[in-house]
Amino acid sequence: MIGGVPGGVPGGQMGGVIGGVLGGIPTAAPPPPETPKRIRVSTGVQEAKLIRKIAPTYPPIAKQARIQGVVQLEAIISRDGAIHNLRVIDGHPLLAQSAVEAVQQWRYEPTLLNNEPVEVVTLVNVVFKLN
Asked: Residue 83, CB half-sphere, CA atoms under 13 Å: how many?
């Protein structure tokens, strides 16, 4: 057709239709958005999903020196609830190793997104307090 666009729709309008669909009438719905592989979740939300918590051993030298405080760790909780890629963000060096050793043994209920398990990045706070 004179003035038509190669590959256009027969019976279409010159210049197209405002608000029309590029390429004609869609034949299928767009695919659903893909579920992310990893999400970031707040500490409070993940604490509710904790199913096994091992208390850290207070390091004797830290106890003797009367050191107390919070060790903050960043953890990736795998799709099956195990801890991976644990790293110290903040805290006293004499307490950090004990906190890491304890948290590595923790287990979480898997986090579901769109009914699929996903990895979770979260912060974990381990509190060391002398009696």
From this structure: 24
pTM, two decimal places: 0.69
Q: What is the DSSP string of 59-101?
A: PHHHHHTT--EEEEEEEEE-TTSBEEEEEEEES-HHHHHHHHH
Tokens at 3, concatenated: 């003035």
Residues 47, 106 contacting (CB under 8 angstroms): no
Beta-bridged to residue 90, according to DSSP, are 72
Residue given tokens 């405080």 in the structure block: 69
Q: Per residue in 29-84, pLDDT tens? A: 777 667 677 778 766 667 778 999 999 999 999 999 999 999 999 999 999 999 99
